[in-house]
Amino acid sequence: MRINIETGELLAFIAVAKQSSFKAAAEGLFISQPALSRRIENLENSLQERLFERTTRRVSLTAAGKLFLVHAQAVIEELELGIRSIELGTAQRREHVTVACVPSVANHLLPQVLKRYATEHPNVRVKIIDESATDVLESVRSGEADFGINFIGAQEAEIDFEEIMQEHYLVVMPDKHPLANERVISLQALAGEKMVSVSSSSGNRGLIDNAFARVPHRPVIQYEINHVAGAISLVAAGIGVALLPELSIKNAPFTGIVARPLSGAGIVRSLGLIVRKGNVLRPLSAKLASALREAVSSRQE
User: Fold this and answer.
1) Is 163:270 a contact under the CB 8 Å cutoff?
2) Residue 164: which residues within 8 A CB-CB, separation 6 or more?
3) Distance separating alpha carbons of residues 257 and 231, to the nearest angstrom
4) By three-state DSSP, how is residue 23 classified?
């Protein structure tokens, strides 16, 4: 069967999928909106599938569009690799691994693992999808990522979740804060504090809200921000106190803050390696997953 799809059509499709907007995608590709629309229409005609649901307010991928996006991105990546190979005059190996993980893993665990992995597999291309827990889960579910490191997915029927560590939350505060001299801190002691927290859409926030619901005097969340790194910055500025996972605090590039454990059971989340149910990792992916397991184990010893 002849494939009658042009590269420009794939690039247009990927741009619209990422921007969720024909206008923004056209501007990014430096073409007119009618030209962009023609490319999408030609692609949909070739595939005999609708790729986007269009309304006056938004553009979203159809089920077929979500499936095709994974393959379209892979085709463009392989084409770019081929072009670079020609420019360098060398034949580069086409082996690649894609791992999805939450930002705390990408920032504080993955770099050292990849440094060792690269010495053994210098020609393997590694793509890292460092996004929210929900995005990591979707990347694995869709097949875009070979595997993921995430703290959600254990309850998903389509996902195999292998716990690799339990991560405790710490109370993070300015080093001049009155509670900074305490060895451990209770949730009750945070009543009346101006709390800094990640947004309500975050998995982190759900754990924190559940913990606050168990104490008589619930601390008030005064400041809300989308990312953990931003929360640390606000605490470092002396604005408030935050409850944050310990992995995000390790080696954080901030001075003037301290972290203390919570008393009692505290707040704990399970960090796991996730793959699509029944999926067997390719050897190179399996080796990177194993290296991550070993890195986590060594941190806990």
Assistant:
1) yes
2) 149, 271, 272, 273, 292, 293, 296, 297
3) 12
4) helix
Taking each helix axis from N to C end, the angle separating 33-47 and 22-29, rounded to the nearest 10 degrees, works out to 110
Which DSSP symbol is given to 181?
Answer: G
pLDDT above 70 as % of the chain: 94
Give whole-number Cα distances, 272 to 129, 150, 156, 268, in Å. 16, 5, 13, 13
The count of other CB atoms within 10 Å of the CB of residue 92 is 12
pLDDT in tens, 162-219: 999 888 999 999 999 999 999 999 998 998 888 999 887 776 788 888 888 888 888 8
N- to C-terminal Cα distance for the chain?
Answer: 56
Cα distances (Å, whole numbers) of residue 227 to 123, 197, 198, 235: 33, 9, 6, 13
Q: Domains for the chain: give ranges and CATH numbers.
A: 7-87 (1.10.10.10), 92-164+270-300 (3.40.190.10), 167-268 (3.40.190.10)
Signed CA dihedral, 33, 34, 39, 43: sign only? positive
